[in-house]
UniProtKB/TrEMBL annotation:
Component of a phosphatidylinositol 4-kinase (PI4K) complex, composed of PI4KA, EFR3 (EFR3A or EFR3B), TTC7 (TTC7A or TTC7B) and HYCC (HYCC1 or HYCC2). One of its GO terms (biological process) is protein localization to plasma membrane. Pfam families: EFR3_ARM. Belongs to the EFR3 family. Keywords: Cell membrane, Cytoplasm, Lipoprotein, Membrane, Palmitate, Phosphoprotein. The keyword Phosphoprotein applies. It is a lipid-anchor. It is found in: Cell membrane; Cytoplasm, Cytosol. This is Protein EFR3 homolog B. Its main location: membrane. Residues 1-27 are annotated as: Disordered. Component of a complex required to localize phosphatidylinositol 4-kinase (PI4K) to the plasma membrane. The complex acts as a regulator of phosphatidylinositol 4-phosphate (PtdIns(4)P) synthesis. In the complex, EFR3B probably acts as the membrane-anchoring component. Also involved in responsiveness to G-protein-coupled receptors; it is however unclear whether this role is direct or indirect.
Length: 781
């Protein structure tokens, strides 16, 4: 019965012999009829399925030898038949492992079938699909059995993974020539690419912690060998499959492999490095939703290192660091493309991190920015200056990408002193682009309610309610932050306004920063200080000690008008609003070039008669202090002009105006002292004075050193009698002084009977020796 059953079903289970008669038949095909081979294999399959688990090992060796013979055949239908039998065997769960069974041949043969190049497209597709199914069967049979051959060894992974990727690459070809859905069943409609993807997902999903590296390395090598980083579409697709397939706690291992591969390709073409970085960007975003672990700073460190290398390559024109004499082998536009890819990756990955990790990343990036300081000298020479500038710009761009969308309720944790000091020192650089980046970074930190875009245009709106600002009460943490750092922020805003190289974007950023501080961080004290600051900026344009161009002076006038118009409506003090509106109306009639509507346009209207600006066109500090003082604001503080304190940062920032001699007027006076007219004149401290003080201190140190040398020499060479006499005289002097001190301090307290009345009726205490004093009986023991 079984024989007849096998005979009836052979045509159903045996693949059609579509390849015609082979040139040379092997193994079972030598019998002369392929049909008998199909019947024999079906019998083996049924015996295998009916075999008990305890005795299956006795039968498997013979079965696998028969399958191997079929796979060695040149006839495609026999190869497919052997594969189908092996897949059935792979799905059987064995209770007792086999210690001597090897699958090396099957891995090699199935991988070879995955790369089939048969002339007939349909046959080629069937062979490739059989190869993929065979590999899937090998993985299922061996992956969970530690006693079997380790399928994760590099010798196996180097065959399995490239075979699957090879079929993933040809998805377009397979789709374009696949049969129509009306002519194919559901099972036949599956393409090699889809089957390979499913097999790859299953393989990676079964990978343990220690096997991830062996599974990912062949992917990287395959992408390198076939130059698949430059189009990067296939590479991104591969790593999306990988990231969504591996276990979440293993995703950081994939990121580490990509980072190591990026370092290994640091001298490759910029397009290749850019492709790796973009793949890293996609993978990192997926990994951040799971577990990134310790690779956060490692990833940013690698990216920043690659950014520095790219800058060096662009400057020198070669990968060895030496300046290329001949034609450049590196294309600068490709390096710029790579740099932008790194910056984009930095921002996209940081946006997925929690707040505390994002703060650490920003501190880390800021620590890498080369800034002039006493402890971190910068590179000199033209090449060094170019490298410093490009590095500063690229790192600040990266920091800006990280800071966009950053939300933190506590500004003290978002902007710690170590971070803020370095960031603000960059705000005093000569380079206008660097200063603009610093302002935009600060704005990103301060804007926590999405008001930034509402101040993108500088204007004097008569009603700011149309802006629909989101305003919250200043929190206690914000108040503490402003008490600690407000003067530092004001000083840098003031110094930035004095820059000659400012353009419209700088003034827009300054206006946004002033407005956002007023909304996010302001209390009454901050409002008063901001008004004083803006009035001091108006004074810069009015006095013009910096010899600013006409545009810069008009821009400062317009900036002050826009901000005072905003803050007057925020404070809602009628008299204050009236004064501001009166000055604005006067400017509209007589000097429209002092308003933002005429300055911050494509063709600004300027005036050369800025030295004749009358007082009616200015916002008067006395008037503002008067009207705000009546509403409870600190009028004394409002009357005091704002004067910034100059620090070492100004000297270290390579600014021309600060590189010159700075005279500070140091006055010690009391505002409420009745002796103002008798105060001591101010002492002028200049560079020469400081230099003289340093030289004098050096001379004093030299004298002290010489005196000590003489004393040591005297004790070494003088006679003993002379040294003894000298020390004796000093000892006698010391003893006399001690006796005087003892006489004054160690004197017994006066007794009650020792009080006498001296002349003029004043009581006088008379000391009695201790031995003459009489003590009560209770004190005697």
């Amino acid at each position: 019965m079984k024989g007849r059953g096998c005979g009836r079903s052979w045509s159903k289970n045996c693949p059609a012999d579509t390849a015609g008669p082979p040139k040379r038949e092997r193994a079972g095909a030598r019998t002369g009829d392929v049909r008998y081979v199909c019947i024999a294999m079906e019998a083996l399959d049924q015996l295998l399925m009916a075999c008990h688990c305890q005795s299956i090992n006795l039968f498997v060796e013979s079965f696998l030898k028969m399958v191997a013979k079929l796979l060695e055949s040149e006839k495609p239908n026999l190869q497919i038949l052997g594969t189908n039998s092996f897949v059935k065997f792979a799905n059987i769960e064995e209770d007792t492992p086999s210690y001597h069974r090897s699958y090396d041949f099957f891995v090699s043969r199935f991988s070879e079938m995955c790369h089939s190049s048969h002339d007939d497209l349909e046959i080629k597709t069937k062979i490739r699909m059989s190869g993929i199914k065979g590999l899937q069967g090998v993985v299922r049979k061996t992956v969970n059995d530690e006693l079997q051959a380790n399928i994760w060894d590099p010798q196996h992974m180097d065959k399995i993974v490239p075979s699957l990727l090879f079929n993933l690459q040809h998805v377009e070809e397979a789709e374009s020539r696949s049969p129509s859905p009306l002519q194919a069943t559901e099972k036949e409609k599956e393409s090699p690419a889809e089957l390979a993807e499913r097999c790859l997902r299953e393989l990676l999903g079964r990978a343990a912690y220690g096997n991830i590296k062996n599974a990912i390395k062949p992917v990287l090598i395959h992408l390198d060998n076939h130059s698949l980083w430059e189009p990067k579409v296939f590479a991104i697709r591969c790593f999306k499959i990988i990231m969504y397939s591996v276990q979440p706690q293993h995703s950081h291992l994939v990121i580490q492999q990509l980072l190591s591969h990026l370092d290994a390709n640091s001298r490759s073409a910029a397009t290749v490095r850019a492709g790796i970085v973009e793949v890293l960007s996609e993978a990192a975003v997926i990994a951040a939703t799971g577990s990134v672990g310790p690779t956060v700073l490692e990833m940013f460190n690698t990216l920043l290192r690659q950014l520095r290398l790219s800058i060096d390559y662009a400057l020198t024109g070669s990968y060895d660091g030496a300046i290329s004499v001949g034609p450049k082998i590196i294309k600068e536009h490709e390096e710029r493309m790579f740099q932008e890819a790194v910056i984009k990756t930095t921002g996209s990955f940081a946006s997925t991190l929690p707040t505390y990790q994002r703060s650490e990343v920003m501190l880390f990036i800021m620590s890498k920015v080369p800034l002039p300081s006493l402890h971190h000298p910068m590179e000199t020479g033209k090449t060094g200056e170019n490298r410093n500038r490009l590095t500063q710009i690229m790192l600040l761009k990266s920091l800006l990408q990280v800071s966009i969308g950053f939300q933190c309720s506590n500004m003290l944790t978002a902007l710690p002193s170590s971070f803020l000091d370095r960031l603000l020192s960059a705000a005093l650089m000569e380079d206008a682009e660097i200063r603009l980046f610093v302002l935009e970074i600060l704005i990103s930190f301060i804007d926590r309610h999405g008001n930034r875009h509402k101040f993108s245009t500088i204007s004097t709106l008569s009603d700011i309610s149309v802006l629909k600002l989101k305003v919250d009460k200043c929190s206690r943490q914000d108040t503490v932050f402003m008490k600690k750092h407000s003067q530092q922020l004001y000083r840098h805003i003031y110094m930035s306004c004095k820059e000659e190289t400012n353009v419209q974007k700088h003034y827009e950023a300054l206006y946004s920063m002033l407005a956002l501080i007023s909304i996010e961080l302001a209390n009454e004290e901050v409002v008063v200080d901001l008004i004083r600051l803006v009035l001091a900026v108006q004074e810069i344009a009015h006095i013009n000690e910096e010899n600013l161009p006409a545009y810069n002076r008009c821009a400062l006038y317009a900036l002050g008008a826009a901000y005072l118009n905003l803050i007057s409506q925020l404070t809602a003090v009628p008299a204050f609003c009236q004064h501001i509106h009166e000055v604005i109306e006067t400017r509209q009639k007589e000097a429209p070039y002092l308003l933002p509507e005429d300055i911050f346009v494509e063709r600004p209207r300027l005036s050369q008669s800025l030295d004749q600006v009358v007082i009616e066109l200015l916002f008067r500090q006395s008037k503002i202090s008067e009207v705000l003082g009546g509403s409870g604001y600190n009028s004394d503080r409002l009357c005091t002009p704002y004067i910034p304190q100059l620090t070492d940062e100004d000297r270290l920032s390579k600014r021309k105006s600060i590189g010159e001699t700075i005279s500070l007027q140091v006055e010690v006076e009391s505002r409420n002292s009745p002796e103002k007219e008798e105060r001591v004149p101010a002492e002028e401290i200049t560079y020469e004075t400081l230099k003289k003080a340093i030289v004098d201190s050096v001379a004093v140190e030299e004298q002290e050193r010489e005196r000590r040398r003489q004393v040591v020499e005297k004790f070494q060479k003088a006679p003993f009698e002379e040294i003894a006499a000298h020390c004796g005289a000093r000892a006698s002097l010391l003893q006399s002084k001690l006796n005087q001190i003892f006489e004054i301090t160690i004197r017994p307290p006066p007794s009650p009977s020792g009080t006498i009345t001296a002349a003029y009726g004043q009581p006088q205490n008379h000391s009695i020796p201790v031995y003459e004093m009489k003590f009560p009986d209770l004190c005697v023991y």
